[in-house]
User: Which sequence fits this backbone?
């Protein structure tokens, strides 16, 4: 493929379309707007559907409806819109409707800093909607990775029948880089598993080896019921303790069984490291330059870059070499991933946080100062 | 009517979930009957019908019918239905909501679905109260009426759903009652058949909650009130006086032709896919 100059938001659209997304519903909000605008141009050409809804609540509802009718569906937003989507994200988790929610993070809380970067929605992505539910959230740190992780997000949503959140910070969303996108035929694309049995045999929420029930689209001849109420394997509301317990536990089981492929991370110079920076998003780029600088000055530093934030990739922390004595977690929030690193670390190593919430990037100098 | 009853059974889910959760004397089951008879009269196959419902007593309607059924979140049924219909325009999408569901928490989706004129049929069960949660005041509770959250009488104006639908741009808007079921069957049929956004408001009694708080008598009394307190629009010679004296008009308020959203979008697809001009 020819090299292209692309913005992170644009690469996200390219990734979504490559993965087969053919339905987009959204509501304008900075700094995610390029995603909706590009979808409005690109989708009709591909015979896909674009709709600007009256708000983010409706956007989330519409993509779930489209997903149930058989299309791969996505929306994009930023903090305030992400807050509005939470109830229906929970519906998608409960009804097991595959869909992708892109949140180009800006400074918060509330209206906050509409055009400035932040990583303040990490914990909201996990726990934003009420009730116990599993969640998958991915976060890119380059334009190419925005493409790749959007493809993965769509694939995971289809494979596990679950909403998947793509968290980009504003820096990555608006960053322009030269990228070479992969050949379309080299991209792995996963479609939801559909029933092939006669309709009268279909049990829409029945457990199987994968924990992911087969999903029929509305209109395919498998008439069934979908509800946000806790339901039995036929999809009907239930309050029987054994059925409720089985339904909720299966939601967790299906994601747990996929941990190995869902938890994505990369390591850089950690083999002999004594100090490791744990970073994600645009901050991982800063952290990498810090590692190189420290190495030049004789300090054995390494980088653990997280691409999956939820489920939190605990084995990335657990499998660090025994030489590692210190972990530093720089992030553009008050310590949302630091909490997780600390939890998984269980006191084995020293964990320090480096936080910045003024709407500016974290610079290498700031990380160096914090480490010194 | 006997053959109608037999027809209704083949559209219900037999395996589970009966008896209905609705109270004795509730009008919801009568509305359900009308919707089914309309679907039957139009000769729609069960596979091509989608019923989307919101939250509340009306929201449970979708559980009982053998269509593709989607029971959504409170107020959002129309937004979910927009996704289903737009993704698969060949399906007939029926949306079932209560008055609080459609007009309070879902008011924004209601006016925008009408403005967009997407081919959905919205059935609004109007019982003037939040029944499932125990009797709180709703956007259609009349002035002065009693609710658990208006214990001294409601001081807020109620919505006129017909005028709201018309102003927002609906293609079809009609009001019926569960007293006059033959008329309701006809209206349901017309509403489903109409291309574009259709609204059918159904006045339906809630004797258990609304009736008791407001001392409106038994379920039968409340049905009788529906007859006495309404006036059909087609009785032209008495409708003006009757409305002036406080009666509620019933019948078809809007029936116009406007471009439908999914069809208009097909035009966009053609435009986008046209080869660039040399």
Assistant:
């Amino acid at each position: 493929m020819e090299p292209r100059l692309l913005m992170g938001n644009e690469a996200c659209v390219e990734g979504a379309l490559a993965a087969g997304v053919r339905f987009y519903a959204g509501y304008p909000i900075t700094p995610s707007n390029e995603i909706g605008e590009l979808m409005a141009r690109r989708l009709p050409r591909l015979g896909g559907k674009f709709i600007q809804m009256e708000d983010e609540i409706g956007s989330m509802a519409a993509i779930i409806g489209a997903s149930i009718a058989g299309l791969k569906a996505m929306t994009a937003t930023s903090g305030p819109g992400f807050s509005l989507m939470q109830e229906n994200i929970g519906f998608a988790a409960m009804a097991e409707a595959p869909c992708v929610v892109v949140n180009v993070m800006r400074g918060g809380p509330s209206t906050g800093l509409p055009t400035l970067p932040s990583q303040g929605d990490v914990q909201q992505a996990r726990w934003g909607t009420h009730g116990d539910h599993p969640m998958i959230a991915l976060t890119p740190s380059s334009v190419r990775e925005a493409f790749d992780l959007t493809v993965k997000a769509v694939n995971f949503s289809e494979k596990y029948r679950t909403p998947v959140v793509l968290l980009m910070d504003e820096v990555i969303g608006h960053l322009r880089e030269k990228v070479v996108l992969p050949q379309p035929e080299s991209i792995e694309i996963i479609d939801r598993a559909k029933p092939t049995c006669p309709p009268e045999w279909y049990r829409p929420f029945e457990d199987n080896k994968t924990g992911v029930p087969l999903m029929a689209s509305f209109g395919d001849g498998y008439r069934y019921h979908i509800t946000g109420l806790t339901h039995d394997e036929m999809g009907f509301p239930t309050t029987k303790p054994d059925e409720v317990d089985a339904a909720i536990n299966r939601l967790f089981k299906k994601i747990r069984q996929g941990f190995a492929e869902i938890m994505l991370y990369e390591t850089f110079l950690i083999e002999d490291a004594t100090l490791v920076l744990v970073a994600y998003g645009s901050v991982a780029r800063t952290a990498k330059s810090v590692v190189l600088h420290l190495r030049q000055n004789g300090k054995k530093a390494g980088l653990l870059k997280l691409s999956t934030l939820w489920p939190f990739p605990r084995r990335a922390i657990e499998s660090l070499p025994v030489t590692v004595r210190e972990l530093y977690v720089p992030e553009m929030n008050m310590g949302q991933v630091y909490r997780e690193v600390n939890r998984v670390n269980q006191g084995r190593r020293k964990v320090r946080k480096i936080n910045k919430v003024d709407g500016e990037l974290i610079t290498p100098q700031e990380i160096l100062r914090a480490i010194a | 009517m006997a053959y109608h009853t037999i027809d209704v059974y083949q559209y219900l889910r037999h395996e589970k979930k009966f008896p209905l959760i609705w109270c004795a004397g509730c009008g919801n089951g009568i509305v359900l009957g009308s919707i089914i008879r309309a679907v039957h009269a139009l000769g729609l196959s069960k596979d091509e019908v989608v019923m989307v419902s919101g939250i509340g007593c009306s929201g449970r309607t979708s559980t009982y019918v053998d269509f593709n059924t989607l029971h959504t979140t409170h107020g959002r049924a129309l937004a979910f239905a927009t996704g289903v219909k737009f993704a698969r325009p060949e399906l007939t999408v029926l949306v079932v909501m209560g008055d609080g569901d459609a007009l309070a928490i879902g008011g924004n989706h209601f006016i925008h679905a009408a403005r967009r004129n997407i081919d959905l049929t919205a059935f609004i069960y109007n019982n003037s109260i939040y029944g499932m949660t125990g009797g709180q005041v709703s956007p259609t509770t009349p002035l002065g009426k009693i609710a658990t959250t208006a214990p001294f009488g409601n001081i807020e104006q109620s919505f006129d759903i017909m005028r709201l639908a018309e102003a927002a741009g609906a293609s079809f808007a009609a009001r019926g009652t569960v007293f006059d079921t033959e008329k309701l069957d006809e209206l349901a049929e017309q509403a489903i058949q109409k291309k574009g956004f259709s609204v059918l408001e159904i006045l339906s009694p809630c004797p258990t909650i609304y009736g008791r708080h407001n001392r409106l008598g038994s379920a039968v009394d409340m049905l009788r009130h529906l007859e006495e307190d309404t006036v059909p629009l087609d009785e032209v010679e008495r409708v003006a006086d009757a409305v002036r004296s406080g009666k509620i008009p019933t019948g078809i308020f809007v029936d116009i032709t406007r471009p439908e959203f999914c069809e208009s979008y097909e035009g966009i697809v053609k435009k986008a896919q046209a080869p660039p001009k040399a």
